[in-house]
């Protein structure tokens, strides 16, 4: 029986059912709003943050990937500047990191803001 973590392609070009659910929900997140990986898993009632992250890593390029964020609001490592441009275009609430330096895993040299989850988090309604 397939599990949520079985995210391989079936060879027919169809997405796994869990991936379809994740990507469909991601497309519904309004501009200027975000959900965390864990929020998406909780909303869907299956999987977890890591499984959602895996779907986004494999298939998320065609959806507004920047609207799915880490639980601490840090910008996606390796994609910080692209994400920041999208956040600014959409008016997503950001907060200063207070000089703490780049987020763990980030290759950014400068201190970048994080998404303000208190203001930008979307609950799916």
Folded structure, characterized:
- This protein is mainly α and 125 residues long.
- The protein is built from five helices and four strands, in the order αβααβαββα.
- The chain has helices at 17-28, 37-44, 49-59, 80-90, 117-120, and strands spanning 35-36, 68-69, 94-95, 114-115.
- The strands form two sheets. Strands 1-2 form a two-stranded parallel ribbon.
- α1 crosses α3 and α2 (37-44) packs across α3 (49-59).
List the helices and strands and how they pair.
Elements lengths: L16 H12 L6 E2 H8 L4 H11 L8 E2 L10 H11 L3 E2 L18 E2 L1 H4 L5
Parallel strand pairs: 1-2
Antiparallel strand pairs: 3-4
Helix pairs in contact: 1-3, 2-3
Side by side, the strands of the main sheet go: 1-2
Rg for CA atoms:
15 Å
Shape: globular
Q: Number of helix segments?
A: 5
**Quaternary structure of the protein:** single chain
One letter per element, helices H and strands E, the order comes to HEHHEHEEH
- Biggest sheet statistics: 2 strands, parallel
- Number-wise, the strands total 4
Mean of residue pLDDT values? 86
Sum up the structure in keywords.
disordered N terminus, mainly alpha, 125 residues, 5 helices, two-stranded parallel sheet, 37% helix, single chain
Briefly summarize what is shown.
With 125 residues, the protein is mainly alpha-helical. It contains 5 helices and 4 strands.
